[in-house]
Design a protein that fits this description.
Elements lengths: L1 H31 L10 H9 L5 H34 L7 H22 L5 H4 L1 H6 L4 H28 L6 H35 L17
Length: 225
């Protein structure tokens, strides 16, 4: 089984090189939509190729973020087009419950910006965070900014993992990529997110706990597509 996984990742190294930056864009668009497709088999192979001088790390990040934004905007769009009633009836198709959607909408009404950014850095959640943002009609520019910021950080982590493996002259191994990405998330990303959210909560309390948000606060509801 482990050999099959190694062959799969090696195959994606070849596919990423053959597909080039356009291939990275397409694969990351799929990954960022609700279709389950791990970014670990796209960005680390590209970083691995960059370590060998066969791709540019800068353009890897540019096209990875662009693909992430494209997939996120697709989710945002279908959330608006299909609406809350559809997701209440068929949310299980998107791995969300009706109660979860209600909570997400309430959260986005007050914390849309921080929720979008944090969500893009959390496994599993990152593919679905755009749905409540779309239903809440979060401001498109702010949605794109915080989505791109979160996606950029995660893509940089994955590309860096692939690059470090390539520089060490080791074979790219999906199991190792997953172990390294989990370690980075737990040791660096998660503590940083905890501090960020804690600071955000404290800031809101200082501004007046329980005060109803004014129209457009949090980046939600002041603009639509």
């Amino acid at each position: 089984m482990l050999e099959w996984i190694r062959d799969l990742l090696q195959l994606n190294v070849d596919l990423v090189e053959k597909g080039g930056y356009a291939g990275i864009f397409v694969l990351m668009t799929i990954e960022s939509s609700f279709i389950p497709f791990p970014s670990e088999v796209v960005v680390p192979p590209a970083g691995y190729l960059a370590a060998q001088g066969r791709m540019s790390m800068t353009w890897i990040l540019v096209w990875s973020i662009a693909g992430s934004l494209a997939g996120a905007y697709f989710n945002y769009w279908i959330a608006i087009r299909l609406g809350r009633p559809f997701f209440h009836r068929h949310g299980k198709w998107f791995l969300v419950s009706a109660k979860g959607i209600d909570r997400a909408e309430a959260f986005f009404a007050r914390h849309g910006e921080i929720g979008t950014f944090v969500g893009r850095l959390i496994p599993v959640v990152r593919q679905l965070i755009s749905l409540p943002a779309g239903m809440a009609r979060m401001n498109l520019a702010r949605f794109g900014f915080y989505t791109g910021l979160g996606a950029g950080i995660w893509c940089a982590v994955l590309a860096g993992i692939g690059w470090s493996i390539g520089k060490a002259g080791d074979r790219l191994d999906l199991a190792r990529v997953k172990d390294e990405s989990t370690r980075v998330f737990l040791v660096w990303v998660l503590p940083a997110l905890v501090l960020l959210v804690a600071g955000y909560v404290l800031l809101r309390r200082r501004r007046g706990r329980g005060t109803p948000p004014s129209p457009g606060e949090g980046g939600v509801g002041d603009s639509g597509p």
